[in-house]
Design a protein that fits this description.
This protein is of the alpha+beta class. The chain contains 13 helices and 37 strands. The strands form 9 sheets. It has an 8-stranded mixed β-sheet, with helices on both faces.
């Protein structure tokens, strides 16, 4: 199962289609016969239709299931539970599901442990999250060099005591490694509570701090305290859209009994003018004389950057100095001494790296460190010996070292393995960096990159098991022409020797938002993927527009009014897989999560004939209503607002819920969502399920799978992920007609 978990030429046609559809085919006009048939096929209750009509800029939009947006309403909760019960019964009745789940468990148990979120501190002390075979959740661990490992935080112990899954949301060790601040949440809510621990004794050093959702802990240079982010306490009955407004960056000092000090508050600071819905981030830069402030605007990649001497951060008279604004189109930076390095896409769609001064910044005259070219520059990281620059060309990453000399040029680092790279740890006080490496066909590894190429060594922090590097898989990287003639990268992974006769079960995945490539559709493999391939499965990833495989221009070509390109690219890739004989419409399913739900939902409604199955996971499916939710406000830069006439038209065009039509033979659909999801509310999947169940005349199931102890997938337990993968693949194979997954009587 793919990962769970930020072209105007399309405009005229898109707007014309939206207006006509919204007025001629309101969502409330459901076919009662179709609804009854769908309910009978799944034993799920039919949702009542209660039309609510809105008018946006003269366009009438009717919503038959608005009442579902109140997830606390007993009627809504009961319907949701009954839907999930019916889904559970249907999936558990598939003969091959139990065996598939057992194989997934077996494959994942082949790894002695899974390690992630690695952070190095002084004295070769290493912190990391680790889950051993047989354990259900990542634990926070520490060790000194190759010494004995100690567990510092065990979410499973908290889960055992409360009966609710817990997860570590974030953590940050002090520079000397003697203390660690961490946030922990429960039930998939991501509502972190911030704790501080003494590493040697395991004792808590402060009272827990709540409302640290999406928080951080940035330590002061002397480790006397840290800066953290906290939401304000909302009054009872406050609208959901107020949740992330008015957040404050605080300083907590470990010694003494003084109250925490507020540094910046969104919406009230007159100097930085941080908007109410922005995130005030304050970070002292270790190993430099500087601290920076960043008013983060939701999912917008471009940043404003302010600086101040780190020793002045607690001075109430401090005036932050602006280094540059969002018009500089900077998405990342690194500091070494007085040198400020920035990553920008200004006049460089695939990004470039510039160097200027922290004391006297001037990007107009900045030195070009990495010129724009074919490769997309992903990130920069400052170490003691050099600046490290990470790029990718297609799905292949490259790492460069740039010395801290006046005219130094990027020098490639000779990595011993190929794959997708991420710099996971760097520090200007230490030479080298720690790099993770992923691939379509081998498990993750962590490599220590020293100051010279002969010091690139496997860290040993992740040891692959028997299934970590299978030899029975093939990979094709191809280019597919989309509807407008542009070539779209498509990555295809399949069993060696597979016949291209159109009979192979195939899953086509995509994402396409926020300009993301790393972490969205870059190469990745885990042993459980083999469970799908062993059943003959093909996994294809379409690098659709809206993502970042080709830089910022690729992002803009699938953003807001250009969003239709995203699902049109997916459709083109699906047609290619059929034409080349990898599969057929009867054997192909599509999948995408979160913002990828837009792509899946609209590919489903635009071309229901091309797919046998669609599986949106925690999907954005009702974009017109997105900004009424807490997290919808911070997504306005990416998708737009209904308050703007043109952006509204774009949102309505990308709204799958409002494109479902009565009497259409839709493919089988499995909507998967965590009920406590703080990023995309569960009602988006619930409303889509109700609408499809009422409208579809194909007789194929529309199932709603809800995890009432889960959220967006962040912090899900191993068991939750394994169960989800088994349901996902079993549903596909059932609908593809695989004899091993047909329930009795079929």
């Amino acid at each position: 199962m793919p990962r769970s978990i930020p072209v105007l030429r399309m405009l005229c046609a898109a707007l014309a289609g939206v207006c006509a559809f919204a007025q001629a085919a309101p969502a409330a006009s459901a076919s009662s016969a179709a609804a009854a048939a769908s309910a009978a096929s799944t034993s799920a209750p039919v949702a009542p239709v209660r039309p609510v009509t809105d008018t946006y800029h003269g366009v009438i939009v009717t919503d038959g299931y608005r009442y579902m947006e109140d997830l606390s309403a007993p009627e809504v909760r009961q319907w949701a539970q009954a839907q999930d019960d019916a889904t559970r019964a249907a999936l558990d009745a598939l003969p091959g599901r139990a065996k598939l789940l057992a194989r997934i468990v077996e494959l994942e148990a082949s790894d002695a442990a899974r390690t992630r979120e690695i952070k190095l501190s002084a004295g070769d002390r290493v912190f990391y999250e680790k889950r051993r075979a047989g354990e259900n959740q990542q634990k926070l661990c520490v060790r000194d060099g190759a010494g004995a490992e100690r567990i510092l935080v065990d979410p499973e112990a908290l889960a055992a005591a409360s009966g609710v899954p817990h997860a570590i949301e974030f953590y940050e060790p002090s520079h000397d490694g003697k203390r660690v601040a961490y946030g922990i949440s429960s039930g998939g809510t991501e509502e972190a509570v911030l704790h501080v621990m003494d590493v040697a004794s395991g004792k808590e050093l402060a009272a827990p701090i709540d409302r640290a959702h999406y928080g951080y802990a940035n330590w002061l240079p002397d480790d006397s305290g840290f800066v953290y982010l906290r939401q304000r306490e909302l009054p009872v009955g406050a609208p959901a859209t107020d949740k992330y407004k008015g957040q404050t960056a605080w300083v907590h000092r470990l010694a003494g009994s003084g109250a925490d000090v507020a540094l910046l508050t969104a919406g009230t600071d007159e100097h930085l003018k941080i908007a109410a819905a922005e995130f005030p981030i304050v970070k002292p830069l270790a190993g430099t004389p500087w601290a920076v402030a960043i008013p983060a605007n939701g999912v917008e990649n471009e940043i404003d950057l302010y600086a101040a001497p780190v020793g002045k951060v607690l001075d109430p008279t401090l005036k932050w100095r602006k280094l540059f604004g969002r018009d500089a189109e900077v998405t990342g930076f690194a500091v070494h001494g007085d040198d400020l390095y920035v990553l920008t896409h200004r006049s460089a769609s695939r990004f470039k790296v510039l160097q200027t001064s922290m004391a006297h910044p001037d990007l107009a005259t900045a030195r070009v460190v990495v010129a724009p070219g074919r490769e997309v520059v992903d990130s920069i990281a400052a170490a003691k010996d050099a600046l490290y620059v990470l790029t990718h060309d297609g799905t292949a990453s490259k790492l460069y070292r740039v010395a801290y000399t006046r005219n130094a040029q990027p020098v490639p680092v000779r990595m011993p393995v190929a794959g997708a790279f991420v710099v996971v740890d760097s520090d200007v006080r230490r030479p080298g960096v720690l790099v993770s490496v992923d691939s379509w066909t081998h498990d993750k590894a962590y490599w220590r990159v020293g100051a010279t190429d002969d010091k690139v060594v496997d860290s040993g922090l992740q040891v692959s098991g028997a299934f970590g590097a299978p030899t029975g898989l093939e990979v094709q990287e191809v280019l597919v022409k989309s509807g407008d003639g542009l070539e779209i990268p498509l990555s295809i992974v399949y069993p060696k020797g597979m016949k291209l006769d159109g009979s192979n079960p195939t899953e086509l995945y995509g994402y396409g938002a926020y300009g993301m490539y790393i972490g969205a559709d870059d190469p990745i493999f885990t042993p459980r993927e083999l469970a799908w391939h062993e059943l003959g499965g093909v996994s294809a990833t379409c690098h659709v527009r809206g993502g970042g495989i080709y830089g910022e221009q690729w992002h803009l070509a699938g953003k807001q009014l250009s969003k239709p390109n995203t699902w049109k690219d997916l459709i083109a890739c699906g047609e290619y897989l059929v034409k080349q004989g990898f599969t057929s419409p009867a054997k192909m399913g599509i999948n995408g999560a979160s913002a990828g739900g837009i792509m899946v939902g609209r590919a489903l409604t635009a071309r229901p004939d091309l797919w046998a199955v669609a599986i949106p996971e925690v999907g954005v499916l009702n974009a017109v209503r997105g900004e009424t939710s807490a997290n919808g406000v911070v997504n306005l830069p990416e998708f737009g607002s209904v308050k703007d006439p043109q952006q509204f038209n774009g949102l309505l065009e990308m709204d799958a819920f409002h494109h479902v039509e009565d009497g259409v033979k839709y493919p089988a659909v499995l909507l998967m969502h965590g009920f406590n999801d703080p990023r995309v509310p569960a009602w988006e999947s619930m409303k889509m399920a109700a609408r499809l169940q009422a409208a579809s005349t194909s007789g194929k199931p529309v199932l709603l799978r809800l995890d009432f102890a889960g959220g967006h997938g962040i912090g899900s337990t191993r068991t939750q992920r394994q169960e989800q993968a088994a349901d996902h693949w079993a549903f596909m194979l059932w609908q593809f007609g695989d004899a091993r997954f047909q329930p009795a009587g079929r």
